Amino acid sequence: MKLLNRLLVAAAGALALAAPGLAAEKAKEPEAHTWSWEGPFGQYDQAELQRGFQVYQQVCASCHALEYMSFRNLGEEGGPFFDPEYPNPNDNPVVRAIAADYMIVDGPDEFGEMFEREGRPADRFPSPFPNENAAAAANGGAVPPNLSLIVKARTGGAEYIRSLMLGYDYPVPEDVTVRPGQYYNPYFPGGVLAMPPQLMEGLVEYADGTEATPEQMAHDVTAFLAWAAEPHMEARKSLGFMVMIYLLIVCVLVWLAYRQVWSRVHH
Ligand code: HEC
Fold first, then answer.
1. Would you say the CB of residue 165 lies under 6 angstroms from ligand 1?
2. What is the pLDDT of residue 214?
3. Residues 5-27: what's their mean pLDDT?
4. Which residue intervals of the chain are DSSP H helices?
5. Which residue's C-alpha comes closest to atom 13 of ligand 1?
6. Which ligand 1 atom minimizes the distance to the CA of 194?
7. pLDDT single digits (tens) 209-259
8. Which residues, other chains included, contact 202 with Cβ-Cβ below 8 Å and sequence gap of 6+?
9. Å from CA of 13 to ligand 1 middle
10. Ligand 1 centroid from CA 193, angstroms
11. Is the pLDDT of residue 5 over 90?
12. CA-closest residue to ligand 1 atom 15
C-alpha cells in the first residue's frame, strides 16, 4: 500500500513539473509596440513617466515592491520629476512631497525602539509586505515580484509587460485549468497566473487630464518600469554619441596627418 502511495505521489510530482513546461511552449508572442526610447537617440517621455509612476503608485504598489529605488531617483536627470531648477533631487519639492506621503520604519532610537517617520528623498520605496511569506499568503501563494528590474528580467521586455497587462480577455483554452485565485493570460509562460486583471477603464484619474484607458495605462506604467530598470539610459546614449563624434574627429586628424607625412615621398 505504502509503495502505491509513493508511486502516486511521484507521478503527481512528475505531472506538476511537466505541466508548466508543456504550457510554457504556448506563451503568446508579445504584441509589437513603439516606445519613445527606442533607437540610438530615443529618450524617455517625461509626461509618460509621470503618468506611469501614478499608475504604479496607485495600482501596483499595493502588491509590488520597487526595491533598489529611492524617492530621489524620481528627480534625477531623465527621471519622471527631474526639474533643471533642482539639480539635486533632494531639494526637488515634488520629490519631497512624494516621499513625505510614505511612512518609513526607522530606528532603533536611543531606547532601542523602532519608530515611524515621514519619508525623505533619500529613503527607499517601502515594500508593501513585511516579508515574502506575508506577500505569498496575501496572493494565493504567489509572491508579486519586485518590479524595479522586471523589464530587464523578462524575455520580451517592455513589450511583454505591456501585453501581459492587457492580456486577460482571452477565452480559456480547454486544456488549461484555472483554479480559484488564478487567472488565464496567454502571454504569461504557462498561461495561468495569480495576478488578477488590473487595468480597468478609468482606474486612475491622471493628473495631466489624459484619458485613462487600459491601453494608455499599460503603455505608461510599462514606460515607467522601463525607466526604473535603466534610469541612466539617456546619459549612456549621449555619452555614446559624444564618443562617436570624438572618434570621427580623431579619424579625420589621423588621415590628415597621414597625408602630411607621406606628401614628400615620391611614388
Ligand atoms: C493584488 C495584487 C497585485 C496588484 C495590485 C498587481 N499585481 Fe502584478 N502580480 C501579482 C502577483 C501575485 C504576481 C505573481 C503571479 C504569479 O507568478 O502567478 C504578479 C506578477 C506580476 C508581473 C510578473 C509576471 C511574470 O512574468 O512573472 C508583472 C510584470 C506584474 N505583476 C505587473 C504589475 C503591474 C504593472 C501592476 C500595476 C498596474 C500590478 N502588477 C499590480 C499581484 C499583483
1. yes
2. 97
3. 56
4. 2-24, 46-58, 93-100, 132-138, 150-153, 157-166, 214-229, 233-262
5. 144
6. 18
7. 999 999 999 999 999 999 999 999 888 898 999 999 999 999 999 999 999
8. 212
9. 26
10. 9
11. no
12. 194
pLDDT digits (tens, 9 = 90+) for 90-110: 999 999 999 999 999 998 999
As a whole number of angstroms, the distance between CA 206 and CA 170 comes to 28
Q: At 166, which amino acid appears?
A: L
Which residue of 28, 51, 53, 63 sits with most ligand 1 atoms within 8 Å of its CB, as the best mutation to test the pocket? 63
pTM assigned to the model:
0.86
Using DSSP's 3-state secondary structure scheme, residue 145 falls into coil
**Cα 149 to middle of ligand 1, angstroms:** 13
124 DSSP 8-state letter: B
Query: Which residue in this structure is represented by grid cell 511569506?
Result: 133
Tell me the residue length of the chain: 267
Q: What is the DSSP string of 65-119?
A: --TT-BGGGGGSTTSTT--TT-SSGGG-HHHHHHHHTSEEEE---TTS--EEEE-
* Residue in the structure block whose three cell numbers are 534610469: 231
Q: Is 257 exposed, middle or buried (0-12, 13-18, 19+ CB in 10 A)?
A: exposed
Question: Angle of helix 46-58 relative to helix 214-229, nearest 10 degrees?
Answer: 100
Residue 124 Cβ < 6 Å to ligand 1: no
